[in-house]
Amino acid sequence: MNSTRDEFIYSLMGFKKAMAIFSSECEIHMSELAILKTIIDNCGSKCTGANLDVQDVQNKLQITKPAVSYILNSLEKKNYIKREIDAKDRRKLSIYATPKGQTAAAESDKTFNQTWDTLLERFGEEDMLCLIELLNRLNDICADFDQDRLCNKKD
């Protein structure tokens, strides 16, 4: 058995627990919060609707288009967002946060920030920056694996 491989697997499993801390402390999951905040940031509080750049969200969150759709459906079921046909271009959807969604985002963001501050204080900013860099490298490598698999399936 490769002990480095085993340690990596155990670390990933532990990391899932670390990620769960953020979601369990907040009213909504991190991915929901990220998309809801994107909608609010792109639209503002008095917006009647904005077109969400799904490709941008996919890249930012490193998730698939079906995952974005699933999250949007979840947010809509919770009455955090509304989707309507865009009045200017009927081929597009306008998406906006409801008052309930704006409140949920604000509360979850506040809780997330408190958890983040504690984590950063205990972990240290320098170590956090190093971890972020390493995680980004790992994500890039994993994205290459995904691309390689897609290319091999076409052969």
Written account of the structure:
It holds the Pfam family MarR_2. This is MarR family winged helix-turn-helix transcriptional regulator. InterPro entries: HTH_MarR-typ, MarR/SlyA-like, WH-like_DNA-bd_sf, WH_DNA-bd_sf. This protein is mainly alpha-helical and 155 residues long. 73% of the residues lie in helices and 6% in strands. It has a two-stranded antiparallel sheet with strand order 1-2. The mean pLDDT is 81.
Which short descriptors sum up this protein?
155 residues; mainly alpha; Arc Repressor Mutant, subunit A; 2 domains; two-stranded antiparallel sheet; 6 helices; 2 strands; 73% helix; globular
For the termini, the CA-CA separation is 33 Å
Question: What is the overall shape?
Answer: globular
Written as H for each helix and E for each strand, in order along the chain, the element string is HHHHEEHH
Instruction: Label the structural class.
Output: mainly alpha
Percent range of helical residues: over 70%
- Mean residue pLDDT: 81
Strand content: 5-15%
Q: Provide the CATH architecture of the largest domain.
A: Orthogonal Bundle
Task: Indicate the radius of gyration in whole angstroms.
Answer: 18 Å
Number of strands: 2
Major sheet summary line = 2 strands, antiparallel
Number of helices: 6
